[in-house]
Amino acid sequence: MNRVTELFNIDYPIVQGGMIWCAGWELASAVSNAGGLGIIGSGSMYPEVLRVHIEKCQLATDKPFAVNLPMLYPDIDKHIESIVEYGVPIVFTSAGNPKKYTEYLKSKGITVVHVVSSVKFAKKAEEAGVDAVVAEGFEAGGHNGRDETTSMVLIPSVAREVEIPVIAAGGIGSGAGMFAAMVLGADGVQMGSRFVASFEASAHQGFKNEVVKAKEGDTMLTLKEITPVRLIKNKFFLDLMKKYSEGASAEELKEHLGRGRAKKGMFEGDLDEGELEIGQVSGIIDDIKPVHVIVEEIMREFIETKESVLNVNSKFTF
Ligand code: NDP
């Protein structure tokens, strides 16, 4: 038990990322059933679609699960109405000011966690009354902070500045990574990429295969002028680099991006023209497996790593 398992009433301090187009009810319920915290990624769901996912998730698990609410979402008030109506116990807010909804959500008895990429925003989130923060480092996939602070620096920086529990994200996809994050001061971890490469993720099989194929150096953060996002370097990404080299303005970049690229790439499997959002840790993800196997392996490796560090004959003895 620790502060994160107690806060969410779960077995292991493993939280799944609420990734758009990848994290529907099947993934969220599987992670919760495996002892972690599953999250429905509502950023890609129309309001009526989110309601169906919440209903199905409630049928598939009697364990707690959460909904991720990106504050950029156009119909956010409708999502919030559904969350309250269905009694979803936990909400992860991201990409916006936590002051806006925290008080209301908490008045409805909902546990609120906010995703941050800097100490400054972690402190603001704590002031706004959230129950925990996710400290998401530069390695993370999808939307990301502008300051490029890596998890190695962000986790201890946030952990020493806030009193509330810190959940580390960005670059974590194994039990050893989880142990490292917790040594640095985190109370738990959030993993996105690792769970994209699962049977239960709603992502297109072609995208899952690309995640497995990706090696170190195959992703990059781009589009800082619009909304920073880490992508696999596919044709769309290379075309974008060409636009940059031609001196394209933010307006021209936006036009090139168009609408619905994330859906095209991650959900429809257009590997050339779609956005393929994934973290750097994809470089060490080599297989697609069921969620319960992922969680079991992570916990086994976490315990083995802990024991190897404590073992007097280990490489740590000097
Ligand atoms: P775009 O503007 O390019 O496209 C909007 C997409 O969202 C479409 O594919 C659309 O589906 C879908 N959608 C779902 N609900 C609505 C709605 N109420 N109004 C309009 N479109 C809707 O945006 P992105 O695809 O880049 O991002 C969509 C959302 O996901 C944003 O809220 C963004 O903040 C979030 N996001 C979060 C990320 C993260 O890392 N946390 C990463 C990237 C995005 P359809 O094609 O069926 O119309």
Automatic annotation (TrEMBL):
Keyword Metal-binding appears in the UniProt entry: no
Keywords, alphabetical: Flavoprotein, FMN, Oxidoreductase
Protein known as: NADH:quinone reductase
Species annotation: Parvicella tangerina
Record has Flavoprotein as a keyword: yes
EC number: 1.6.5.11
Xref: PANTHER family: 2-NITROPROPANE DIOXYGENASE (PTHR32332), 2-NITROPROPANE DIOXYGENASE-LIKE PROTEIN (PTHR32332:SF20)
GO molecular function: nitronate monooxygenase activity
